[in-house]
Specification:
73 residues; mainly alpha; 2 helices; 92% helix; transmembrane; transmembrane helix; membrane
Amino acid sequence: MRTLGVAVLGLFLGLLAGLLIFGELVGRIVVANKGSVEAPWTFVIGFGQQGLAIAGLIAAIVIDHRRRAGTSK
């Protein structure tokens, strides 16, 4: 049950990081340089958020697993 909680927390933190990085930072840089967001950048911005959400989920599970393994020895 703890792993599920950690996974959900990692998912939401990764999604938040993706929104901040890709939605705000990259989106504003692209619009400032080109004036509008064109086809390749829409995919990067859209799927980058989801990619960071999944990366956050995996990172949270790995970190939790290593912390539990380190404390039980």
